[in-house]
Each structure stands twice: as C-alpha cells, then as structure tokens.
C-alpha cells in the first residue's frame, strides 16, 4: 500500500482537520478525540467539498445541501446523500501523519 506524508501529526490537534490532495483523491483528515480518520472530501450527493462543511465531533455536514456523515465509519446519517463515504487508512509513524493513497476495501 502506498502512503502519503501529510506532515507532523502533532500539528493536527483534536477537533482540527485538513484537506489533502492525493494522486487520485482529495481526502478530509480529522482528529476526532485524538484518533485520526480520513474520508473522501467529496459528498456522494452532488460533489460538495466536505472540508468546507461543519465538523462537530465525529460528524461532518456537507456545506451544499446538509447531508451528514460519520467520520469514523463513513456512514451517511442524513439525506440527501444516500451513499457512504470512502475511507482511507491513517497512521502515525515517527511523528509523521500518513494516509493511504487508495481507499479501504469496504467492510
Ligand atoms: S452535495 Fe452534499 S448534500 Fe448535496
């Protein structure tokens, strides 16, 4: 699996997020209570950029039409989206925040 280095993990404090461009995807990485989660930065309803939405705890609300998703699982919680988000593995190695460049296989 290929990984992309997103910089020092300590710079992304709990409650903070960043958007990273991978070769094939844009991803939203969020520190939820000390654990990093990454999902595709693209709402499956109509392409809204979730990084510009409201992030509260482990939930993100799409800025375009208000669909809501669980950042831990990618699960859609509220329409008008009906598909879950792609998720990406995240790990910390030697203090660096690394994200997989391809999504996880669905569970
Ligand atoms: S584009 Fe996200 S809810 Fe419509």
Automatic annotation (TrEMBL):
Keyword Magnesium attached: no
Domain of life: Bacteria
Presence of the UniProt keyword Nucleus in the record: no
Domain (Rieske) ranges: 3-99
Cofactor: [2Fe-2S] cluster
Keywords for this protein: 2Fe-2S, Iron, Iron-sulfur, Metal-binding
Coiled-coil region list: none
Family annotation (Gene3D superfamilies): Rieske [2Fe-2S] iron-sulphur domain
Family listed: Belongs to the bacterial ring-hydroxylating dioxygenase ferredoxin component family.
Protein name per the record: Rieske (2Fe-2S) protein
Source taxonomy: Bacteria, Pseudomonadati, Pseudomonadota, Gammaproteobacteria, Oceanospirillales
């Amino acid at each position: 699996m290929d990984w992309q280095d997103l910089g020092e993990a300590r710079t992304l404090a709990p409650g903070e997020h960043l958007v990273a461009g991978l070769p094939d995807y844009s991803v939203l990485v969020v520190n939820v209570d000390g654990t990093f989660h990454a999902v595709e930065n693209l709402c499956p309803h109509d392409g809204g950029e979730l990084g510009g939405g409201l992030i509260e705890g482990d939930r993100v609300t799409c800025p375009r039409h208000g669909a809501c998703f669980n950042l831990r699982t990618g699960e859609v919680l509220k329409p008008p989206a009906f598909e879950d988000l792609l998720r990406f593995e995240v790990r910390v190695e030697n203090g660096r925040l690394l994200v997989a460049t391809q999504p996880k296989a669905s569970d």
